[in-house]
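Forum: Protein Structure Q&A
Topic: Joint prediction for protein chains with partners

I've read a bunch of threads here and the consensus seems to be that you should model interacting components together rather than docking separate models afterwards. I'd like to see that in practice. Below is the full input, 930 residues plus whatever partners are listed. Could one of the regulars post the assembled result?
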Amino acid sequence: MSGNGNNELLKVEHVTKLFGGLAAVNDVSFTVNSGEIKGLIGPNGAGKTTLFDLITGIQRPTSGKVYFKGIDVVGMRPDEITSLGMVRTFQTIKIFEGMSVIENVMVGRHSRTRTGLFSSGFLLPRSRKEELETFEHSMRILEMLGLETRAFDAGTNLPYGQQRLLELARALACEPEMLLLDEPAAGLNPYETQELTQLLERIKSDGVTLLVVEHNMGLVMNISDEVIVLDYGEIIARGAPEEVQNDPKVIEAYLGSGIGNAKG
Amino acid sequence: MKQSVEKSKVKAKRCENKYKNFAIASVLILIVPLWARFIPGNLIHMDIVNVMALAGIYSCAVIGLNLLIGYAGQISLGHAAFFGIGAYSVAILSTRYPGFPAWLGIIIGAIISCAISWIVGKPVLKLKGHYLAMATLGLGEIGFIFFREATGITKGTVGIIAIPPLSIFGIVIDSDFKIFYVVWITVLLLMLFSMNLIKSRFGRALRALHSSEIAAEAAGVNTSKYKTVVFVMSAVFTAVGGGLFAVFQRYVNPESFHFSVSILFITMVVVGGLGNLWGAVIGSIIITFLPSIISALPYWFPFMPESLTNFGNYTLVLYGILLIVFMIFMPKGIAYALEISYSSALRGMKRIRDRISAMRYTKRK
Amino acid sequence: MVLIIVTLALKKSTGLQWILSGLTVGSIYALMAMGFSVIFSSTRVINFAQGEFSMLGGMLMYTFSNRAGIPALYSFILSVLIVTLIGAGFERLVIHPLKKPSVITIILITIGLSIFFRAAAKWIWGTDTLAIAPFSGDKPFKLLGATLVPQSLWIFGFTLLTVVLMFIFFNRTILGKGMRAAAENPEAATLVGVSPPATSLVAWTIAAALGASAGIIIAPIKFVSFDVGVMLGLKGFASAILGGLGYAPGAVVGGLSLGVLETIVAGVFPSGYKDAVAFLVLVIVLLLRPQGILGRQEKLE
Ligand SMILES: Nc1ncnc2c1ncn2[C@@H]1O[C@H](COP(=O)(O)OP(=O)(O)OP(=O)(O)O)[C@@H](O)[C@H]1O
Ligand SMILES: [Mg+2]
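Posted by a regular:
Agreed with the consensus. Here's the joint model:
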């Protein structure tokens, strides 16, 4: 039904979300192919975050379908979708309070580990082994992002830029096939943004497919294979970065809102 | 391979430390009856072993409740009902069927609690915050009304008397001294289990959903399942405490399972320290000793004016004030304060060690 | 509703009797429910000490009118005033200074307050059940075949008056309208000049006054003792939930229906189970009304 093109990883079909009378997302359809980076842009309030919520099961679409790897994920719980290999980050950082950096990442391993109540409570050898593996895997991810020296600090004590990285680390710990990043560069300085760009390239080269919401036009245009533009919940343009940048409708939307391009 | 050995050493070290502290605490608790019996009763006007045993019984419930409230961030104002289920299971079975082993009664109570908390927990834990508090309160009160009104089963307000003592491996647990050890060994086992749990995948999932359910779900945690499981676990711990309560008091009536007892448990959690495992034990001990200390005060200070020696009245006023004061000024509880003052040096060292090993590990890469 | 009709049909006078008695206690629950709703709608706080406001009201009334011999009207005003000051003072001293308290913190603090009041009352007034004289005699009269005490009329009248006053406050005064707006949208309310701290203080003041008067007017019928606050509070809350935790109308409907339901159940089943009704209603409504009551607390962004 949906998995025709064999490298079609995510398929969104006529997805709509109504809040009362307001259509936050209106009849949106697109696909993301395996291995690509797709940019999702649009002025503030365009519905980008809502669209992420709909795709990852945090909210249920009013109508429409979402397929991941050919599986209909509408109505699935967010954790089930995560286990399938589609993992997201949040625009407003959600670092787990009261947990160290490494523990935050270890939570990300949840769907890839199995230790249950009794084997951990009685400290069975199986659980110890898995715990060690979880620790090592998480440590490797922290190294990749350059956070390993902060591993035992409280996650919420990290500076803002590193908290964004920690969110990314947690998502990576799930071994995602597809990552949905909601404004990963928000609040980063130019240097950090530069590093993030490289990091995303690297994640892509590791075979992870990316859907990235971003207000930083430099970043999006730089890394995306294709860009989708959302305005008032509807797709108003899509295509290669250069095409979209010069699309009069897009310019109009950004000028109209008067905010988005200031950040770009 | 070598790196993993290195890291496992780091981990093992941290674990060792945890178990060392556990061992020290266990020894401190378990020797209480040995010295307490040499203190003449008429000197302090309280029976330390007896009160400690009761504190241990409450600890079972409070450890469970702390997992639920302190770690998973889900409140319950109805746990006295599970305490009651545990106690009544033992009381009813062992008085109706003479010779029925009380320990089996405790296990059956735990199983009944497990079943009820599972059925109730699943829907109720969809509620959050105040709604969850009120729903659990309502359920707890329904339990209380059942204990009070189902006179055919529970004998109502009269209560069930003459509960036979617990006997384990042929030893009849008929003195405070013996029951102290039964209770506290149970508490220490529950502690050990909880300690392992908290540092594991399970415990991380709980702490994560406490902080943000949405983020926890996005990280792959089935929050509704984990909330239910920890609720059930706390209910089972509480029921075990209730079962021990029945064989300790040898008498039960509904008053011991009233809403105010749920609040008593919560006061213990808060005073000890939300989200601090040893806090549960410390809180239980302090709050259980409070009434005894207060009623012993007139003997300690015989020259006090009459109006001030009638301390029985103060106890509840104090609970109320303690709850408010702790929530405002010391939300992390006494255990936390103790922890900083006693082991700040120790923790600092550990932190540095961890950092160094993390750094060393990086360099090797 | 069905139950009411069935019982009415079964035995007309008994049914009416039940309904009138039910409406009497129901009015009290309605006043309590309004107290919960006012604080909750404007500050998202459930005040677990709401029931104790009633208990304190009743106790003070007893002291002033029965002990000090102050005329009922003045005793009433004095008692309500004192409790209101206590409520407002608690908001200022404890609730207000807390910056963004967690739900658990607020629950435990208001529970702490309720324990404190209850224990203090036990200390001051003892454990006896105290009787207060009805406001205007205790000679029952007949109404359509049912017997009614005059105090019931006072209760109906007072509840009606309160509902009208509440309606005027929340629909006609600037402060009240602002508070209603604040409940719906905190940011917008700040724009119209109602600051959340002021809202919180006003809400606590109103709730304490409502609680105290409820406790006083029911006292001649149900007596008063240090522990009446618990049940009154819980039933008020159950009514508030039943009515949807909004402003006056829902609370009144919730309170009256709970009162009637409870009286009928007490008439049909062993009366010890009467109290379970409120809790069953509470739990069932909480579980079956997903809109607004269930749902995620955390909002993205
Ligand atoms: N739970 C909700 N209820 C009602 N309206 C909502 C809700 N969530 C979002 N909206 C509305 O839907 C629209 C889209 O919001 P969304 O957060 O998806 O935008 P966005 O593109 O992510 O914006 P930004 O760039 O500011 O992050 C906005 O108008 C918002 O006010
Ligand atoms: Mg957004």
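The CA atoms of residues 44 and 79 of chain A lie 28 Å apart.
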